Amino acid sequence: MIFVELVLAGLMLGGVYALISIGLTLIFGVLRVVNFAHGEMLMLGMFAAYWASTLGGLPPYVTAVAALPLFALFGWLVYRLIVRRTLGMGDVVQIFATVGVGVVLQNAALVLWTGDFRTIRSGYADAVLRVGGIQVSVPLLVAFAVAIGVSGLLFLFLNRTLEGRAVRAVAQDPISALALAIDTDRVYMRTFVLGVCCVGLAGVLLAPSYPIFPAIGLSFGLVSYVVVVLGGLGSMAGALLGGFVIGLIEVLSGYFLGTALKQAIYFLIFVLVLLVRPQGLFGQRGAETMGFGKIA
Amino acid sequence: MVKRVVVGLVVGVAVVVVASVGVVVAQDVRIGTIFPVTGNMAFGGNEGFMGTEIAREIVNERGGIWGGKKIVFVQADAPDQTAATNEMNRLISRENVKLVVGSFSSAIAFTASQVAERNKVIFWENHGVADTIARRGFRYLFKTNVNATGTGGGSAVFAAGYLAKALNIAPKDLKVAVAWEDGTYGASVGKAAFEKAKELGLNVVANEGYSAKSADLSPLILKLKGLNPDVLLVAGIGQDAVLFWSQARKLDFNAKAVVATSGGWGVPDFAKNLGDGANGVFSSDFPTEVNPEALTPHARELAREFVKRFQAKKGTRPTGNAWLAFAGSMVLFEEVLPKAGSLDPEKIRDAAFSLDLPNGSMANGCGVKFIPHDQFDGGKNERAFAIVGQWQDGVMKVVGPDKLAAAKPILVPLPKWSDRK
Amino acid sequence: MTSTRPAVLLVVVLGLMALPLTTSNDYYLDIIVQIFLWGAAATAWNLLGGYAGQFSLGHAAFFGIGAYTSSLLLTGARVSPWLGMLAGALLAALFALVIGYLSIRLRGPFFTLSTIALTEVLQILAIHWRGLTGGSEGVSLPNAASVWTMTFDGRRTYAYVGLGFLLLAVLVSWLIERSRWGYYLVAIREEEDAARSIGVPVLGVKLGAAALSACLTAVVGTFYAQYVLWIEPAHTFSIDISIQLALMVIIGGLGTLLGPLIGAALIIPLNMFLRAWLGAAVSGLYLVIYGLVLVLVVLYARAGIVAEVQRVMRRHPVPRQSPA
Q: Who among A115, A121, A215 is closest to B42 (CB)?
């Protein structure tokens, strides 16, 4: 019986990780930029839900929709002011520009809202579904469903729509895409904004289930890199599957090996994947060693 | 050269800073305080500071010390150990403070007292519980509170004694799980709880450390759930306590009794965040609002005054940590400093060691007698003890030992989560 | 790469030697010690990040290995930190070689991510293996002042010892700048595939830089342990240290000799003064400022503040001192 509960917990956690990682893998797949501020953007999404709930009484599923324009605006600003200038500029710029953004976001949150843990105390946060002898938290179930839904939608978008194909074209070969009169800058901008919206949405949906504080971006952020590398950068299916795998590994290793070491396990897996099969489960071989070509 | 210019600029800024140091009023007695006022231990740190502050107010109102001099605090905020080192350096080197009071957290106490000791500054610790704090052979450290063995061990003793009887299970059959945050505080208390539980012959089924910085404790909770213990002994330092217990609710982990060991489980914010979920949780904790009969008249008066002022400031009744801060600081301000006559560390040490106050003399019911620094646990108050409290209706009530109890234990066994709300 | 003129270096060294004499106040001496300490560590980071172009955000791992090795040897086997330091350096170099060999194929951000992951693992292990490392309670080092245990009563002495380590790191960098190895590093950094095709031993050169960088960082880690006399996993193996090292070097001037020191000299005092002026309200504020500066420098002044100031002062084009 406990095994069923463990697997369920692992899948729920996996859904959480998948939801967080979708934005990251999308941004990397297209812009070839690793967003080192990803965890901090998640944290902002969580705070958005917190403040909406505390100050306005808005439940998270309303905030999820209402805050999307805010996330889009934020993503657009970050792209125009910073990310755009890092494309094709070499490692130090690309790495440290987003590292810097992450540092600013985390510490601005610390200054504004202090390091105190906040929790959303609403009926929604504590709601549980009881099936047989098993109990599942409703917010986590919703996050799980949304993860699958969003990745499905994105997959359809990328593969069945013209715009989506343009995105894939740019991801595969930006120079040729330019030659085909695709506005690469606009594609990059929209993809980045989409990625930021995804992670913001993830933050809002996860806010009821976790304590909210500035440093939480670090813990979730690090895991999302593991998920994305495992699943394959740029792959939606990879983010989903990678999320579930890591979630299960974390819960099971926490149970059998002790909670102190569970994080060590998935970091080791991370390094292992990077060394043995850097393209991950679904990624394209060579995508990660291609480095950063000079794009217009 | 460019390099020279930059260095010159830095030195120039340094000069400006020196010039802007404020003038010290000769009539004040400047004492440093260091607490985690921000960060994940903030609610404990703020409580601690408030207790210390009320002590200062009372002493100042009643005529100050050394012929009318007022005590003035030079405050430091130490949300983590790095900040603790930096802040202590600032207090000692820049603010010229000779005596520092703190700190709510064992980790902060450990770090801050290191810096104090190196600079021959007295560190007056009212809270830190980790055994290792007072076992480093320090000469300038005084710790008024009980050790991890007191709270941690106390939780095991309570389980084997009262709980085993109340649950009608023989101690050797009582399944006990021990969980602790793996920082300085939790590791120390958890170790004490575990060892005492084994010593008393309890059936210990788990001894798990976890990181207080985790955002998710579900693997641990599920593991504990699978082991189905009768009693959970747990040590949490700050907001991890809230996370632990709320995830226990979400995952439907039901134990018949939970004995925490103060820290994050013993502060009012715990009850505030968990609501009804907090009720019934025991805490092997620091004495709080003990039975007034157990106090000397002076202590009784101080206790009443303290509760009144704390409620006025914070709106809640003080818990163990606030009492520690208040009672310990009153000993310093009322007993030690007047005898010392100045902030000279050697005089303060002599004054502190000269104290021999029986149990009931401190506002929280303890006595005062410091162990000499050349002995084991040097600098610790050997007349400090732990009590067992329980959250009842959002308030921590003392339920043991009998002499100090102000209420009887309730909710044994704890109702299941599904039966609550 | 442009080699710094000896005359300039001499002036700088003399200035640094005079610095600890300008004050007797412990607070300011502490700042000076920290500038030297972090300047040394940043210079070490620069060997791998600035000269070799591999951006590690995991140097806290080497820092921690150095600090823990010498400290555990001191408390457990009464080995002098001067010797323990060498053991720590060796261990760190070995660690760097093994990890480097495995991950050096990884370009850019992936290398960075793997360094972050490895530091996290070390931190978790350090907390978990309480029997060896004392867990979260850390390792406490004896207080008694003695040259043999690298423990001193006065901060001024610490400042000069720290200056010694700083000058060591700078010397090593200077020698590399002027050697063939240095030219290989530039070639690899600018255009790795081309360098490989003309026979530059890319793997060997990079691994060498990694090992040397790790060694020096570990040595500084030992000095740090002997200065604060207490180390524990959360701060010693922390990503904040790794980020700060990179920050100092980038702001001061990546791949330059004195850039790391300048970065340290700018960041450390500003942090201390901010804390003193604004008190508790500042926690995090200085990092917001540095994050912003990092972003601005990386986008608009990639060669670092040194190069920008030089450019303004000499009205020359920016010398090729940074990776493209």
A: A115
